[in-house]
Write a structure and sequence with these properties.
- The protein is mainly alpha-helical and 479 residues long.
- 70% of the residues lie in helices and 0% in strands.
- The longest helix has 42 residues.
- Helix 4 runs parallel beside helix 15.
- It has 17 helices and no strands.
- The chain has one domain: Amino acid/polyamine transporter I, CATH 1.20.1740.
């Protein structure tokens, strides 16, 4: 859609300044967040010792298959907003693409702040290792509200402030954060194998045989968790309009980040297995207790201060992940607003820093508000919602695009087409169908889809957009 002169002049444009190394960096920062350190015992508890490694492998296979879809679309449409731009282009900006792209931004209005807030709440829980009083409730009238919620909100605001600067400064800061992330991963791996060597060598803990149906259900639940831990390999697609040579950089960044992170995760799982024999007994406990299961590995291997150091590094990693999450997601409302398909106020680019500052601040403020909610089962809700309202639409869309628009240049063509999108769809269906309590997560996604569709139809009728466009032409202005 062509922007009006007033919109173009007032919003400016983003510059292409991100190379391959920085692209891989931004992906890996989002992928390696607080998730693997907390969920490591959860994966083992869900799938059992023997199948837990396969949950990480299966998650990596799904990530590669889905990543190839992102790579082809990201190289073809290197624009701000990632999935927003893909869905709009695939299904037609003057047809259903207008609705589906709006629906994507609508679900992102829930899932992105929840993702960011969950990282901040996890971070604040880890702070409880050093300041146990964070679990206390400051207001007797609101016992569910803890000091940790205020610490999480403070972390969210700090990340927003750090991102409110030019992209070169953000990239330099990201490299500093990434050094701590790699140190944390190395600490878990080295501590795990060192502890195993000191207690008779590495060996797989004994576990009882399970019926096939139970084993498959546990593997599905564990793979859902590992899939959540892998997510982020597509982060660079949200920054598509700021990537140099996107036709080469985006596909390489996606595949390299999955390769590196999957190697780290599998090594972490193997290192931790001998030390997490009681993981199943802790699945119902707090995030802090689950953290200590990982930090205790370092404690057992190298002493008390090593355990504290590991906890500090995990806090650092959680902060780095939130940093990357907010960086990437802030480009989505901006891109939709630029197209007149979301609130026009969010289309502004900062005149000095060259960043979508209003979209950044808006998303940071909403995420800060979510820090005061309980985020139980947030992983399941996030995964199910995005599979149904984002990933499935892209998997079908990349096939439709091949059929309907064969003339496109396609600077990157996924190998073995159409196998990658079909494998990704099969993997996601496995997660949705075989896990326990599958219906609850599906209903959340359906509720978001229905509410977003109703809002879109009301807005489209007022703006004469699809399916209410007059003579096939709708208004370009947002509200």
């Amino acid at each position: 859609m062509t922007l009006t002169p007033s919109i173009s002049a007032s919003t400016g444009s983003l510059e292409r300044r991100i190379g391959l190394r920085s692209a891989v960096l931004f992906n890996m920062l989002e992928m390696i967040g607080v998730g693997p350190f907390i969920t490591l015992p959860l994966v083992i508890a869900a799938a059992g010792y023997k199948l837990s490694v396969w949950a990480w492998v299966l998650g990596a296979v799904i990530a590669v298959a889905d990543g190839l879809v992102w790579a082809e679309l990201g190289a073809e449409f290197p624009r701000a907003g990632g999935s927003y731009a893909f869905l709009r282009e695939i299904y037609g900006p003057d047809r259903a693409g207008n609705w589906l792209s709006f629906l994507y931004v609508w679900q992102l209005s829930f899932s992105a702040p929840l993702s960011i807030a969950s990282g901040c709440i996890g971070l604040s829980s880890f702070l409880g290792v050093f300041w146990p009083g964070l679990d206390g409730a400051p207001f007797a009238a609101w016992p569910a509200l803890h000091y940790a919620n205020f610490a999480a909100a403070g972390a969210c605001l700090l990340v927003t402030a750090l991102l409110y600067r030019n992209l070169s400064s953000v990239t330099r800061l990201a490299w500093v954060l990434f050094a701590g992330v790699l140190t944390a991963i190395a600490g878990v791996i080295v501590s795990g194998f060192t502890h195993a060597a000191a207690t008779g060598g590495w060996h797989m803990p004994v576990s009882p045989a399970l019926p096939l149906a139970v084993a498959m259900g546990g593997l599905a639940q564990a793979t859902l968790i590992t899939t959540y831990d892998y997510w982020g390999y597509y982060n660079i697609c949200f920054l598509g309009s700021e990537v140099r040579r996107p036709e080469k950089t985006i596909p390489r960044a996606i595949l390299l980040s999955v390769l590196f992170v999957s190697s780290f995760y599998i090594a972490m799982n193997l290192a931790a297995l001998p030390s997490l024999r009681d993981a199943a007994a802790h699945t119902a406990e707090s995030a802090m207790v689950r953290l200590r299961l990982v930090a205790d590995i370092a404690h057992s291997a190298f002493g008390q201060w090593a355990g504290y150091t590991m906890a500090a590094l995990i806090i650092w990693t959680a902060f780095a992940s939130v940093f990357s999450l907010l960086l990437g997601y802030s480009r989505v409302p901006y891109a939709a607003a630029r197209d007149g398909n979301y609130f026009h106020y969010l289309a502004a680019v900062h005149p000095k820093h060259g960043i979508p500052h209003r979209s950044l601040v808006a998303l940071g403020v909403v995420a800060t508000g979510f820090c005061f909610f309980t985020l139980a089962q947030v992983i399941t809700m996030l995964v199910v919602t995005r599979i149904l309202l984002q990933f499935f639409l892209q998997h079908v869309g990349v096939i439709l695009l091949r059929i309907q628009r064969p003339e496109l240049a396609r600077p990157f063509k996924m190998p073995l087409y159409p196998l990658p999108p079909l494998v990704a769809v099969a993997g996601f269906i496995f997660l949705l169908v075989y896990r326990v309590h599958a219906l609850g997560g599906l209903m959340v996604a359906v509720g978001i889809a229905v509410s977003g569709t109703l809002i879109y139809l009301f807005r489209a009728r007022r703006l004469a957009q699809w399916p209410f466009a007059r003579n096939g032409v709708g208004e370009a202005e947002g509200n």
